[in-house]
Write a structure and sequence with these properties.
148 residues, 8 strands, alpha/beta, two-stranded antiparallel ribbon
């Protein structure tokens, strides 16, 4: 029998969760991205489940890497001038549930945020990364613990 908390379906015998450090393998990504994404995922899991956060070998374990960090124009204003740019971050995730191997998965998740091309990426980057991390961690949480 599974039980739900914040909509999560967690095996009742699961007591701990671990999130390994997500290494940055994406070119052009800021050096702080690995830390901020890893912490965002840990925060989501500790705030939305009853599981204790451990450094390694949790009953539920998340690991992976940041594989993509790309900014690109999306809305063209006039010839060769973009009105909006899009920052896209992709993470590769391996999830392991000690109690139900049918729940295990390896999957890539991508999310993006748009910003005005009049702004430089460096001025909006921190906020965009925060927004994207929030979306990515929700997608990963839902995939692992909400059966979608």
């Amino acid at each position: 029998m599974h039980y739900g908390f914040s909509g999560a379906t967690i095996p009742p015998e699961a007591k701990t969760v671990s999130v390994q450090y997500f290494q940055n393998q994406a070119t052009l990504a800021p050096p702080t991205l690995s830390q901020s994404f890893t912490e965002a995922l840990r925060d989501r899991l500790s705030s939305q489940t009853r599981l204790g956060l451990v450094n390694k070998n949790g009953d539920l374990n998340f690991e992976g890497s940041i594989t993509g960090y790309l900014t690109s124009p999306i809305a063209i204003q006039s010839t060769d001038l973009a009105a909006l740019n899009r920052l896209t971050i992709t993470v590769s995730v391996k999830y392991n549930c000690t109690f139900d191997e049918k729940k295990n998965f390896e999957q890539s998740f991508s999310r993006f945020a748009d910003y005005n091309s009049a702004e430089s990426l460096t001025t909006v980057e921190e906020e965009l990364i925060r927004q994207i991390n929030e979306q990515l961690t929700l997608d990963i949480f839902n995939r692992a613990l909400n059966d979608w």
